[in-house]
Write a structure and sequence with these properties.
5 strands; 8 helices; about 55% helix; alpha/beta; elongated
Length: about 250
């Protein structure tokens, strides 16, 4: 069996270029890929926490795993050597297209694998250091890092289509765990959605209080939490007193 393994670290990247390298190698050597394992996950995670772990458990003697480069197997040299050691024990092959490296049970392949793995780890360390230095310099220049701020109540949640079902479950006293099991989502996703719902409710209360005083809602861009809301209501009361004094005069 011939397996292809492709991996990228972020959702913004794609695996097309890696898969193209592997397919080119297979076409050149008249080989057929039986199955492709593709994932978007950081190489920091252990192989057991990735699809790579499933692939390694499935490999048998005589099988071949093809990757675009050795660094796809892991972020550190130790992780790469651990995978190669497992391949040696189970007697299946690993081929890296970029380095043109074919793993075998001999001293030469082990030395080459060590050199390539070490070079990849050094390169990643240097990139990380340069990135940190650049970010520190930008921060010193006064540039605000991170995503642009956006009021939480304006955010969209994947649970929005199930809003009515979620609120109904909460009214019936169902637990967060029960709702997550029914919807197949993580508890943090549910908590985030409930936070958006709460902020939207507070926003409606604020707008209603403003209109009750005959004034248009103000401070539309403010995110109101449990601390800000009393201050805003106090501000609304002060506005009402000023309006009454003006009428008396």
């Amino acid at each position: 069996m011939v397996y292809a393994y492709v991996r990228v670290s972020t959702q913004m990247q794609d695996t097309d270029s890696q898969l193209f390298q592997i397919e080119t190698y297979c076409n050149t050597h008249n080989m057929h890929i039986d199955k492709v394992y593709s994932e978007k996950v950081s190489g920091v995670k252990q192989p057991e926490e990735r699809k790579l772990g499933t692939l390694l458990r499935r490999c048998k003697e005589g099988d071949l795993v093809i990757v675009s480069e050795l660094s796809r197997l892991g972020r550190t040299l130790y992780m790469i050597m651990e995978v190669l050691n497992l391949a040696q024990k189970k007697k299946f092959g690993i081929y890296a297209c970029k380095e043109k490296f074919e793993h075998g049970d001999n001293l030469q392949s082990k030395v080459i694998a060590f050199a390539f793995g070490l070079a990849a780890e050094i390169e990643r360390t240097l990139i990380s250091e340069r990135t940190k230095e650049a970010l520190a310099m930008r921060k010193k220049q006064g540039v605000k890092l991170g995503r642009p701020w956006k009021p939480i109540e304006h955010e969209w949640s994947p649970l929005e289509p199930r809003r009515r079902y979620i609120l109904e479950c909460l009214r019936k006293g169902k637990t967060h765990y029960y709702i997550c099991q029914k919807l197949g989502c993580h508890e943090n996703t549910l908590k985030r959605f409930l936070g958006i719902v709460e902020m939207q409710r507070k926003r409606r209360e604020w707008e209603k209080a403003c209109r009750a005083m005959g004034q248009e809602p103000m401070i539309m861009g403010i995110v109101m939490d449990a601390v800000e809301r009393p201050l805003l209501l106090s501000y609304a009361g002060a506005c009402e007193c000023v309006s009454n004094d003006s009428v008396k005069k």
